[in-house]
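Ticket #4471: structure output looks truncated?

Reporter: J.K.
Steps to reproduce: submitted the chain below (279 residues) through the standard prediction queue, then opened the result file.
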Amino acid sequence: MEGKRAQNGRLLVMYYRPCHDHCRYRSPLELMPWSTGLTDLIVCTVRLNVGGVVTLNSALPGAPGLASVWDGLQELRGRGVRVLAMVGGRRSFARLDHGFRTIYPPLEAFLRNYGLDGIELRVPEPLTAGIAERLIDRLRADFGSGFVISFAPRVSEIGGDGPLGSFYDRLYWSRGDEVDRFHVQTDRGGDEEGGGAAASAEFERIVARHVIPPKKLVLAASSLSPSVDVAELLRRHPVAGVAGWGQADAPTGVTDGPSRSAAETGRAPGLSVCYVDWT
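Returned output as attached by the reporter:
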């Protein structure tokens, strides 16, 4: 299922949000740092709306302002970067759960029409494993083994606790061979007790549970969690790779933020990392 990886065999993933609420759409070609050896770009966020209407955030995919976005993404694909769509938010999965026959076909058409290489599923609410299994099975049947399927659980959700803990356990036991990776969102934010340090400890606990193997885990971090020691976690565990966030609502420019984590990660075994961070 997996294809391109960085020279060291790990994935380097970037999340890309074309626009926030009040800014112009910007092509990923304006934003992405090409010296990084990027392997995957994930476009955020595709929403499944009432009646099966698919939107990219609040815009229809065919909106004129998005033309440069889709053109840029296709150019990236020509350079060997996989382009995935993150699906989630606004009761998207609740609608899929209650109306699969209505909601799935427009999603399939969207993925096919825009030539996307995979999908990332961000499940923000309790969901029956059965509907997730059905979705995975349909995606595999419709797009084949080369199509990337990933999930984006928060670090606290994939450790077996909370309303989504048993969901991810069952999902891996039943469809683990069909899920390429889990992009573990290590951000906890400054308001949560322990912040990034607690997230690091939770990630260690995930590995120690021996449910999902490290080779299927991608560490996703941003400037919200600078105390997550990405480099140390990479040294300790053979994880699949790392992910960072790009933003499109601030002046053009590339930084090494989260600067400390990115710089240290770049010294992890063979991995060169640069995060785009304009927050």
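Triage note (M.O.): checked the attachment and the full token line is present. The chain has a mean pLDDT of 78.
Status: closed, working as intended.
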